[in-house]
Sequence to fold (200 residues):
Amino acid sequence: MAKQAKVPFSADGKKAVILRIDDFRWVENDYRPETSVKLWHDGKALWIRLETKEREPMAKALEDDGKIWCDSCLESFVRPFPDDPRYLNLEANSLGNMILGIGAGRGDRKSIVKAYKPRIGMKAEKGPDSWSVSYHLPFDMLREIYGKSAGTPLKTIHANFYKCGDETPLPHFGMWSPITNGKIDYHQSEFFGTLELEDE
Fold:
């Protein structure tokens, strides 16, 4: 069953919801890095911070639009408008290199990373035992991408969050909202969870 969460309003990020990316599937190994996503909104943007406990993340993709998913990777898939089937996929490695695409499914992705990465404040950080990526999705930017008029409300967002490493020494596929049909594919928006943005 798809998960649900309430995303609190916070002007400074001190009030947030933390979701666990702890449903690992599809491969037979015991690698389950502790991973979470922290979410809040300030009325102008959705703020996202993904963090995972990995000491030595693999990062071979040295530029945007590379094979990011083959590295140690943290991902957000976000469908901000329920009346539009297209969703954004944001996939990042520990160097901060990323994929940012839009489309209704795996087969029709369009890269928008050059146009919009500068506007989301991408930040990657590495510590001795963990790494993280942080960014925000300005609501005006989302309206622009989706061709919505100014002031179109964002209240219910469908999304999923992932931790993967397709070609790492220990391949792994973790998710927040479970994909239950056995198909090894994150691009299945029917399994996205629901985020309800709380009022100020």
